Amino acid sequence: MGPEGANHNLDAFSDKNDPGTAAFTKTCSRSILLAVCLPAVALVVGAALMSTFEYPSEKERLERFTTLFNEMANLTAEIEANFNNTGVASKFEEFMDEISPYLSGKDSVPDASDPFWNLEGSAFFCWTIMTTIGYGDYAPKTDQGKIFVIIYTILTVPLFVASLAHLSTSLTEALGKCFRKNHDRFGKQGYYFAGGVVALGLLFILVLPISFSVGSYLDTIYFSIVTLSTVGLGDFTPSLDDKSSFGFILYSLFGLLLIGSIVSGLQNMYDVGAQFVIEKAHSGLLSFQHGRALSRQSSLSSSKSIDARANVSTGWVWKKAGTPEASIYGNGVEEEGKQW
Which residues cross the membrane (predicted)? Predict the structure, then answer.
């Protein structure tokens, strides 16, 4: 091993054991842990409170709807029996099947097996508030729930934005460190590294949303873009059957982190590019000013040289008025100095 390798290993060893480096690493780890834990705690607490506020009211509406539906079904069955199989009951069932898709939304009555305001539905709702996605497919009905949403929005939106920015920056720095560490590997074929980032983004946009069953493949891509951009139009929402709320939360979290990292990287590229343009413009301005100064100095020197040559060719050496000094004129004849 040569001296350079030994020095390199010594530097690496000293960096690992440097108290300042260790303290900095520990501080970064704590900040990342807080950026993950605080939104998670806010999400769990919000889900529990929203379920407490809204689920009893939803249960009452569900019971009223079920009672009314059963009464209508019994009535159609009686009509069917009294009028000798007129098909009223089957028509009623067809009617309910036909209009049920149009009853979805924030004013609808959910299925008893999949209520809006159970724990997972409340977590999904709080997540859409915290991330500002806000699909709007259902909303609180009670005054307590509305007051809680006001307070929850004020507290958690800035918290999540700050946490997402910190985590995205940390992810960008980690990717950059990995790239610099493996520069010899990626230096000649850097498109492999960029291709990996692009492939990861395409995975979140084109592949993973298929599991949420929002419609056709075009609808899936549309839903993914609208979700990860936090636009949240609400015309398509993820299917939350089979306890998939938390799967959607994880998907959108990592998707938002990826988008944030890409935006952070683009911002760094923009800053570097802007600094490069500013430096080039400043250098060009200095070069232009220096060139003008040299040109002006050259013009003055040329002008003085031309005047001197003209005076020598005519034989006149101008003196101040009243000086009796002799001057040379013409072909070398000395005469009294001329006055200017």
Answer: 32-53, 147-169, 189-208, 246-266
CA-based angle 37:43:45, to the nearest 5?
100
CB 32 within 8 A of CB 170: yes
pLDDT grade, residue 210 (50/70/90)?
confident
End-to-end CA distance of the chain: 85
**Are the C-beta atoms of residues 134 and 128 closer than 8 Å to each other?**
yes
Tokens for 224?
């993914």
Residue 132's φ and ψ, nearest 5 degrees, are 65, 20
Q: Cα–Cα distance between 58 and 66 in angstroms, integer?
A: 12
Q: 149 to each of 51, 124, 217, how far by Cα in Å?
A: 12, 13, 33
- The angle formed by the CA atoms of residues 310, 316 and 320, to the nearest 5 degrees, is 120
Distance from C-alpha of 130 to C-alpha of 128, rounded to nearest angstrom: 6
pLDDT recorded at residue 311: 53
Q: What angle do CA 92, 97, 98 make, to 5 degrees?
A: 95
What digits encode the pLDDT tens for the residues 17-51?
Answer: 555 555 556 667 788 888 889 999 999 999 999 99
Query: SS3 string of the chain?
Result: CCHHHHHHHHHHHHHHHCHHHHHHHHHHHHHHHHHHHHHHHHHHHHHHHHHHHHHHHHHHHHHHHHHHHHHHHHHHHHHHHHCCCCCHHHHHHHHHHHHHHHHCCCCCCCCCCCCCCCHHHHHHHHHHHHCCCCCCCCCCCCHHHHHHHHHHHHHHHHHHHHHHHHHHHHHHHHHHHHHHHCHHHHCCCCHHHHHHHHHHHHHHHHHHHHHHCCCCHHHHHHHHHHHHCCCCCCCCCCCCCCCCHHHHHHHHHHHHHHHHHHHHHHHHHHHHHHHHHHHHHHHHHHHHHHHHHHHHHHHHHHHHHHHHHHHHHHCCCCECCCCCCEEEECCCEEEECCEC
Degrees, nearest 5: CA angle 151-230-146: 25
